[in-house]
Amino acid sequence: MSGAPGDPRAQDPHRLRALLRDTHAVLIDFDGPVCDLFGGRSTASIADEVKARAEQAWPGTGLDPDVRDCADSHGILRELAAMADRHAPALDGPLDWADAIVEKYEYAAVRSALHSARETVGASELVETLHAREKPLAIVSNNAEGPVREYLRHIGLLRRFEAICGRDPHDPRLMKPHPDSIRRALRLLGDPKPKQVLLIGDQLTDLTAAERAGVRFLGFTPYDERAREMLRRGADFVVASHAPVVEAVA
Questions:
Q1: Which residues contact 10 (CB under 8 A, 6 or more apart)?
Q2: According to the model, what pLDDT value does residue 3 have?
Q3: Cα 125 from Cα 250, distance rounded (Å)
Q4: Full DSSP string of 99-164
Q5: What is the model's pTM?
C-alpha cells in the first residue's frame, strides 16, 4: 500500500485509474459500501440481549467490564470471546448462541433495509461495471453470510458475486480486522495474487485486514478525518462515493 496524509479529496485520479487497471479481482465490504444495514441506528439493544443471554449461559460468573460496557452488536461478540479466553477453561465452549442472536437481528435489518431502500448510492452500478469488465467479485463482511445473501438476492446482485464470506459463526475472533474472511474469499476466487486484489471498505478495521492479507485497499468514506487516517495508514486511494470508481473502471 502507499499513500500520504493530506487533503483526502486532492488525490490524483490517474492513480485511481492505474489502481483499478492493475486489479484482477475486487472484494467489497457489505455494510457501508453496499447497504446501510441498520440505517444509522444504534445496535446497543442487540448487545444488551446478548449480555442477558451470557448471564444465563455463565451463571455465577459476573460479566467483565469490557463486556458490560459494550454497546455494539459486533463488538459484543469480540468481547465475549475475549472474556471466554480470559476465564478458560471455566467458560470453555462455542459462542454460537451469541452469534445466532446477532444474526437474527441482521435478518430483520435486511428486511427493513429492503423496505426502506437503504442501498448505498451507486453500489449496483459499481458492481455491474466491475462485472462487465470481468473482474471477479466477492463480499467480505463481519455480518453473517445468510442476511448478506438475502439482501443481494432481493436487489438482483447475488449472481454477480463468486463468493460471499461473512463472519465465522463459531469464532468471532476471526472478524475483521482479522484477515480470515479475505483469505477465504481469495481461495474461493482461485487464489489470485494478493497484490492484484482490491478491497473496498469503509472502516479502519477493513484497512487493517487488507494489510494483513496483503491485498490493496480502497477506502470508501464521506468523512474527511477518517479518509485522512486511511491515507496516513497506507490506503491506496480513498473516495467519498462510488462515482469516481465507476468512472475510472469504465
A1: none
A2: 45
A3: 11
A4: HHHHHHHHHHHHHHHHHHT-BPTTHHHHHHHHHHTT--EEEE-SS-HHHHHHHHHHTT-GGG-SEE
A5: 0.94
